[in-house]
Design brief:
This is Carbon-monoxide dehydrogenase small subunit. Pathway: Alkaloid degradation; nicotine degradation. The protein is α+β, with helices and mostly antiparallel strands and about 160 residues long. The chain has 2 domains: about 1-75, Roll (Ubiquitin-like (UB roll)), CATH 3.10.20.30; about 85-159, Orthogonal Bundle (DNA polymerase, domain 1), CATH 1.10.150.120. It is about 35% helix and about 15% strand. The longest helix is centred in the C-terminal third of the chain and has 20 residues, at about 140-159. The N and C termini lie far apart (about 50 Å). It binds FE2/S2 (inorganic) cluster (2 copies). One FE2/S2 (inorganic) cluster binds near residues 38, 39, 43, 45 and 46.
């Protein structure tokens, strides 16, 4: 076992883990962040996406020990004072989900995308989210949600 310590959604956690423990399993089973989900066994779906030091990663492809000393943000750490994160709000308003299973990963990947490209074209959104699969094929409204979040951020910056 190895002792690791990391910040998850603003709180510090220190735990013993097996070196082979995947970050997604650590987050779900030891930290209790079950909003981060596992959708495949092949690193394809992106449902497990979290932010590691602000950049999106598939947490099923990262070992928990690799996150030692780093900062992790999950979908459960986005809302502040009971208010949804603007990207969460846009997903809600645009009904960018059906079963919702891909939604946590889609939101985290969208936040990273908008962080590096605040005004993405539709094509850039589709390319930016190509690592995230929606089995319900709800891509149209997901793209709309990202566009809505981008527009809301521009309006907020202008006002
Ligand atoms: S569970 Fe991580 S990519 Fe599918
Ligand atoms: S909403 Fe069902 S997998 Fe995307």
């Amino acid at each position: 076992m190895t002792r690791i310590s990391m910040t998850v959604d603003g709180s510090t956690y220190s735990d013993e883990v097996e070196p082979r423990t995947l970050l997604v399993h650590y987050l779900r089973q030891q930290v209790g962040r079950t909003g981060t989900v596992v959708g495949c066994d092949t690193s394809n779906c992106g449902a497990c996406t979290v932010l590691l030091d602000g950049r999106s990663v598939k947490s099923c492809t990262v070992l928990a020990v690799q996150a030692d000393g780093h900062e992790v943000t999950t979908v459960e750490g986005l809302a502040t004072d009971g208010r949804l994160h603007p990207v969460q709000q846009a997903f809600h308003e645009c009904h960018a989900l059906q079963c919702g299973y891909c939604t946590p990963g889609m939101i985290m990947a969208s936040i990273d995308l908008l962080g590096s490209n605040p005004h993405p074209s539709e094509r850039e959104i589709r390319e930016g989210l190509e690592g995230n699969l929606c089995r319900c094929t709800g891509y149209h409204n997901i793209v709309k949600a990202v566009q809505t979040a981008a527009a809301a951020a521009s309006e907020g910056a202008a006002s």
